[in-house]
Amino acid sequence: MKVSVVTATKDRPEALSLCKRWVDHQTHEVHEWVVIEGREYREGLVLGAEKAQGDAIVIFDDDDWYSPHYVARIVERMDLYDVVAALWSAPYHIRGRAYNWGRRTWGLSNTLSFKPYLRPLWRGKWERGEKMKDIRQHATACRLDIPLMIPIKGLYPGGMSVLQTYAKSKFPNRDRNLWHLKKAVGDDAVAHYLRAISVIDERLRGRETLLGDRPTADP
Prior knowledge:
The chain is α/β, with parallel strands linked by helices. It has seven helices and 13 strands.
């Protein structure tokens, strides 16, 4: 089965570089990686899916971490189902070094994989402002019940401060030494995230100095 990975991004080259790393380390071959740059997020996913040439369309967010076995497990399920909704757990705030261990979510739009014949329905949900994940209700669907991806938040500065985020209890579990993250994704992946943060901060400081721009917050 030929797999098309689709990513929507906007002025986030460091995140896109990380995403390329997770695409490249998949144990199942990725036929193509379709990147839509500069559009609104949901629109980007629609346009990317429409450009995809594979037998399966798999969504990757630019800043999240994906296990090397993510695509392989998706493909296993798509031999029998038309939509696979992945499970993610413990979203992680990389700058705040904190996570939410108790939060588990199924099948958001950024964790869906689906067959190409569902692209018109995918677009229709977006055009009508409906939840794109609800394409699950119109096809044979299953859940990938092993968490093989981790949503990474806080890669880019801006928006709520880390302390405000904690106050809202979104990331109640502290991880000062990054032990939990390293256990989940490995030392090498953590090092790449930390290196990306350094590059981001240097780039945005230069932009503020030259143009007076403000850093772009995570979507």
